[in-house]
UniProtKB/TrEMBL annotation:
Organism field: Pseudomonas sessilinigenes
Record carries keyword Transcription regulation: yes
UniProt xrefs under CDD domains: LuxR_C_like
SUPFAM superfamilies, per the entry: C-terminal effector domain of the bipartite response regulators, Pheromone-binding domain of LuxR-like quorum-sensing transcription factors
Domain HTH luxR-type: 184-249
Highest taxon of source: Bacteria
PROSITE patterns in UniProt: HTH_LUXR_1, HTH_LUXR_2
Pfam families reported in the protein's UniProt record: Autoind_bind (PF03472), GerE (PF00196)
Protein's name according to its UniProt entry: LuxR family transcriptional regulator
Length: 253
């Protein structure tokens, strides 16, 4: 596997797009026995209340046609047990939705997860592995490989390939990282350039009057920008607005 991975890594790094890289990953994953791949990335994986946000970048290979809409538009990401386990994990893990299999999911799954559980059972994709990748500044990515239900023991087979799949996942992430900023969508909260500027000064400890003087604007104008930012962030005061803006990476230069 090491020789194959070395060759694959060279091809992956020369990929011209994330889609091309995912195609290369799929070929390697299929050699390990995986049928389906799901890659996702978000610069901010949780909202300020700790709820999973739909990832900014999602790439699918060999999933059912309705997967994208269910997970990204219908809220399946927010109730996906694997994603909940992954966001709190630092190590790759194998998982199974079959009740007789002992994995990290068995003690986690509840009634609210039923739509995801039922969907994967109906699709005969009840077993897989997931590699969580925690990135600088709070970014988060996962690569998940799923095995179709069939003969043999898919969970045991998945566990035996967990190490190789992990290496592939990190190789993909290294290749994908320079592309993610361009691929990512907008933040769940949109602030204007002036609102972000005012919050940056507020984060430095300046009062509204001091910000007005610094920007050569009236106090009323600065107060309006700060109040607007507070409303958009659902904040009760300027301190909370700054904290939430930092959380959503809205004040990054």
């Amino acid at each position: 596997m090491q020789t194959k991975l070395s060759d694959f890594n060279a091809r992956l790094m020369s990929g011209r797009s994330l889609d091309e890289q995912m195609d290369n990953v799929l070929r390697m994953a299929q050699a390990l026995g995986f049928d389906t791949l799901v890659y996702d990335y978000s610069p901010v994986p949780l909202d300020h209340e700790g709820i999973l946000l739909t990832p900014s970048v999602v790439r699918l290979r060999n999933t059912p046609r309705d997967w994208q809409s269910l997970w990204c538009q219908e809220g399946f990401y927010q109730i996906d047990p694997v994603q909940h386990v992954a966001i709190n994990a630092v190590s790759p893990f194998a998982w199974s939705y079959r009740p007789d299999d002992e994995t990290v999911l068995q003690s986690f799954i509840g009634k609210n997860h039923a739509p995801v559980v039922d969907y994967l059972h109906d699709s005969q994709m009840t077993c897989g592995v997931t590699v969580p990748i925690h990135l600088p500044k709070g970014g988060f990515a996962t690569l998940t490989g799923l095995r179709s239900d069939g003969n043999g023991d898919p969970l045991q087979d998945a566990r035996q390939t967990l190490g190789d799949f992990t290496l592939i996942s990190h190789a993909l992430q290294e290749a994908a990282f320079p592309l993610l900023e361009k691929e990512s969508g907008t933040s769940p909260v949109h602030l204007t350039k002036r609102e972000r500027e005012c919050l940056r000064f507020a984060a430095d400890g300046l009062t509204a009057a001091e910000i007005a003087k610094r920007l050569n604007r009236s106090l009323a104008t600065i107060t309006l920008h700060l109040t607007s930012a507070m409303h958009k962030l659902g904040a009760k005061n300027r301190v909370q607005a700054v904290v939430r803006a930092v959380h959503y990476r809205l004040l990054d230069n």
